[in-house]
Amino acid sequence: MLLIAGLGNPGSQYAYNRHNIGFMAADEIHRRHNFSPWAKKFQALIADGMIDGEKIILIKPQTFMNLSGQSIGEAMRFYKLGLGDLTVIYDELDLAAGKVRVKVGGGSGGHNGIKSIDAHIGKDYRRVRIGIDHPGVKELVTHHVLGNFAKSDSEWLEPVLDAIAVNADYIVKKDDAGFMNRVALATGGKPEKTQVEKSVAKPASQSHIRQARVQKPTVNIPKSGPMADMLNKLFGKKE
């Protein structure tokens, strides 16, 4: 059994906030894979279903974002799950809008929902981060994340949510590179590099003066005529 958590704030007034993109992704997975109806448990809404032959519990904490760890921790303990059994989907300011990245563990990046989860259960769980872009100024962050998506955002938002749901089996298989590649291709982006390319060593660059000293020009000297006589005087005639 695996637990997939989408983060957000409960209530219709927050439903289309950028901060609620985790809820939106969970809802799309729920719809796409025909999960059971949402039920209240663990201070959350939960539903169960099957993806790639694995039983999945979807959870949307209803404790408000800053207390997400209370709900998720309670569910983890009830189902006796380890950190490797949890995937959390949430908004990421430090990614361009529509970009999706996956990592295991690491810092919270200032995200209060992640801070709460880290405090309750630890850090080494899988994180699916969906970019919502940064407003550019720290003072505007709260307004940005709690603001609604613009109508124009639907051009990238809907394809990203659909791609996450369609390729949720890669999350279940813990194939992070495969998941990111599939989502990137489905949304018109470039696939992620899964291997480190070997770089070819280049010779150390030289100054223009040094190059001029080392590289001797090739001169084609005419064999006869006035020009040949002048050039022979300049460069020396080889007998």
Account of the 3D structure:
The chain is an alpha/beta fold and 239 residues long. 36% of the residues lie in helices and 18% in strands. The protein has nine helices and seven strands. The protein has helices at residues 21-32, 68-79, 112-121, 141-145, 154-166, 168-172, 176-186, 208-214, 226-235; strands spanning 2-6, 39-41, 44-51, 54-61, 86-92, 100-104, 126-131. It has a seven-stranded mixed beta sheet with strand order 2-3-4-1-5-7-6, with helices on both faces. Helix 1 (21-32) crosses helix 5 (154-166) and helix 5 (154-166) runs antiparallel to helix 7. The longest helix has 13 residues, at 154-166. It is globular. The N and C termini lie far apart (90 Å). Mean pLDDT is 84; it is low at 194-219.
Shape: globular
Radius of gyration, Cα only, in angstroms?
A: 29 Å
Average pLDDT reading: 84
Q: What is the distance, rounded to the nearest whole angstrom, between the alpha carbons of the first and last residues?
A: 90 Å
Question: Helix content range of the residues, please?
Answer: 25-40%
Number of DSSP helical runs? 9
User: Which regions contain 5 or more consecutive residues with pLDDT less than 50?
Assistant: 194-219
The ordered string of helix (H) and strand (E) elements is EHEEEHEEHEHHHHHH
Structural class by secondary-structure content: alpha/beta
In this structure, how is the largest beta sheet organized?
7 strands, mixed
**Largest beta sheet: strand ordering:** 2-3-4-1-5-7-6
Q: What fraction of the residues are assigned to beta strands by DSSP?
A: 15-25%
How many beta strands in the DSSP annotation? 7
